[in-house]
């Protein structure tokens, strides 16, 4: 999926950046919490931000991972007065911060900017619907398979061994994506390893039987192409 800032013409991108303020957040810092007043839209110059919801005191569900050239905060800026999730930096970030009133003004003045926002939001909605489908329709194993497939789409390199995932996969992160315990994720991944579906050395995984995962999720019946985290 194309990051939001990459969708704009250079002149339009410059207009937004000129009205923004640049600031740095360190890894682990919270940018905003669910329920905070939604006054800003954020663009990521560098780094990575995890967008998630708390569903209990010790359980979270990851909604999105946003990276360089993308944006976050739209669920508050465009749909209400408060942020409906929490944003936390998973890497050191440089963020451009644009006030809500300024982005609304730019969209009113420039239909092309508004059109690109609409396309981006629509694609994000389709990705969310695909995740819900995977998580609810195919049980816990299907939900975990969904995460591994998304990792393969984003970081997969085809090799003689299968699909090598170049980004480390932490089972605790997988558990946060789908709201189940790390122990449950570990049990299913260990079953896959015993059956030759995946292998790993520490956090570096190779998917040896991608067909098993795609058949588990009935991927051939799903028209969504942007299966990413």
Helical stretch count?
9
| Total strand segments | 12
* Terminus-to-terminus distance: 10 Å
Across the major sheet, the strand order is: 1-8-3-6
Oligomeric form: single chain
Q: Assess the beta-strand content as a share of residues.
A: 25-35%
Mean pLDDT: 90
Tell me roughly what share of residues is in helical segments. Answer: 40-55%
Low-confidence stretches: none
Give a short account of the largest sheet. Answer: 4 strands, antiparallel
The radius of gyration over CA amounts to 19 Å
Which properties best describe this structure?
four-stranded antiparallel beta sheet, alpha+beta, 9 helices, 229 residues, globular, 12 strands, single chain
Provide a descriptive summary of the structure in words.
The protein is α+β, with helices and mostly antiparallel strands. 43% of the residues lie in helices and 27% in strands. The chain has helices at 4-7, 10-18, 74-77, 100-109, 111-137, 139-155, 171-178, 182-194, 210-216, and strands spanning 21-25, 30-32, 40-46, 48-56, 59-67, 71-72, 86-89, 93-99, 156-159, 162-165, 198-201, 204-207. The strands form 3 sheets. Strands 1-8-3-6 form a 4-stranded antiparallel β-sheet. Strand 9 and strand 10 form a beta hairpin. The longest helix has 27 residues, at 111-137. The chain starts with a helix and ends in a 13-residue tail after the last helix.
């Amino acid at each position: 999926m194309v990051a939001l800032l990459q969708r704009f013409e250079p002149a339009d991108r410059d207009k937004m950046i000129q009205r923004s303020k640049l600031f740095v957040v360190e890894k682990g810092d919270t940018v905003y919490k669910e329920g905070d007043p939604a006054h800003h839209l954020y663009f990521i110059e560098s780094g990575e931000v995890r967008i998630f919801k708390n569903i209990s005191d010790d359980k979270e569900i990851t909604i999105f991972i946003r990276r360089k050239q993308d944006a976050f905060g739209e669920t508050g800026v465009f749909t209400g007065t408060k942020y409906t999730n929490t944003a936390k930096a998973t890497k050191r970030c440089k963020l451009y911060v644009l006030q809500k009133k300024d982005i609304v003004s730019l969209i009113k003045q420039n239909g092309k900017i508004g059109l690109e926002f609409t396309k981006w939001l629509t694609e994000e909605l389709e990705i969310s619907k695909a995740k819900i489908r995977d998580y609810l329709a195919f049980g816990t194993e299907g939900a975990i398979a969904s995460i591994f497939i998304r990792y393969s789409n984003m970081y997969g390199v085809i090799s003689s061994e299968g699909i090598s995932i170049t980004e480390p996969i932490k089972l605790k992160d997988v558990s946060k994506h789908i709201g189940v315990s790390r122990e449950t994720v570990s049990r299913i991944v260990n079953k896959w390893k015993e059956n030759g579906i995946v292998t790993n050395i520490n956090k570096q995984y190779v998917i040896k039987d991608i067909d098993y995962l795609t058949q588990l999720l009935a991927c051939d019946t799903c028209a969504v192409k942007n299966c990413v985290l």
